[in-house]
Specification:
It is built from 11 helices and 2 strands, in the order ββααααααααααα. Helices cover about 65% and strands about 0% of the residues. Strands 1-2 form a two-stranded antiparallel sheet. It is mostly helical and about 270 residues long. Helix 3 crosses helix 4, helix 4 crosses helix 6 and helix 7 packs antiparallel against helix 8.
């Protein structure tokens, strides 16, 4: 109803639900590129600078360096975590020629081989990518470049994240795979909304691989599988409970089971 002169005119009301336009993805510009470059430079500098200092065993390095040595030496031991993170360390340890016959079971013990530097560089490399993924994730949520810069800068300046990334620990790789799981899930859902089938399936595979890597590093990685899984289930079965749907309930359920979202969920969560 609107007013036309001194009279009110009744307009017909449509029974069709309002059409929701998909949110357009952000566009890269000079500002976004510049801010991402600043975050990337600061991230790699804070993680890689003087990563060889100190040349002594730091807190939980006593566990992960020793376990990597045992993997290379093929010794039997009970591993409380899934093996992926320590297998990566064992691979770097093997390439660097780090000795496996000298135990490092005491905090503060000096490393007698430069191979520890390469293992620290590896973990610092994973940690340096985390602020970049945080920046891209916020941009994927269609927030401004300045908001993305703030998010990335907070991760860069977080002191505990710097310490974790500069030591021979599993957490930097774990956090990176968790962050990549969320980012790839956002990309997957966006390409489903826009109908880009090929990109949708590519990011579905990436999301499944990242969630698998997270859970294969530590059991706490199961949390990201639960969060992404619950959101994916809600998005998949939302048409079944839609009040505006005209089809009967069995037909709606059948359509959902045939949908790309359902099939992609089965594929992604096979891990």
């Amino acid at each position: 109803m609107f007013r036309e002169g001194h009279h009110y005119v009744m307009m017909p009301v449509s029974d069709e639900p309002p059409k929701v336009r998909p949110v357009a993805p952000f566009e890269w510009n000079r500002l976004s590129t510049s801010l991402l470059s600043i975050v990337s430079f600061a991230s790699f500098v804070t993680r890689l600078y003087r990563v060889d200092f100190p040349a002594n065993v730091l807190f939980d390095e006593v566990h992960f360096v020793s376990m990597a040595q045992w993997y290379v030496a093929r010794k039997y031991f009970f591993d409380i975590h899934p093996p992926l993170g320590k297998l990566i360390l064992a691979f770097v340890l093997k390439l660097s020629g780090f000795h496996t016959d000298v135990p490092y079971r005491d905090i503060g013990k000096e490393y007698g081989h430069p191979g520890y530097i390469y293992m620290r560089y590896t973990q610092a490399f994973w940690g340096a990518w985390l602020p970049i993924v945080a920046f891209l994730t916020v941009r994927e949520l269609n927030l401004s470049a300045h908001a993305s810069f703030i998010a990335g800068s907070l991760v860069v300046l977080e002191l505990s994240m710097q310490i974790i990334s500069r030591a021979i620990l599993l957490d930097s790789f774990l956090y990176l795979t968790i962050a990549l799981s969320f980012y790839s899930a956002l990309r997957m859902w966006r390409f489903h909304r826009t109908g880009q089938s090929r990109k949708f399936w590519i990011w579905t595979v990436i999301c499944g691989c990242m969630m698998g890597c997270a859970f294969s590093t530590k059991h706490t990685g199961l949390g990201v599988i639960g969060i992404v899984g619950v959101i994916h289930l809600i998005r998949t079965f939302q048409p079944v409970f839609s009040a505006s749907a005209e089809q009967p309930l069995p037909v709606r359920i059948q359509n959902v089971l045939r949908s790309k979202l359902f099939v992609s969920g089965v594929c992604a969560f096979q891990r």
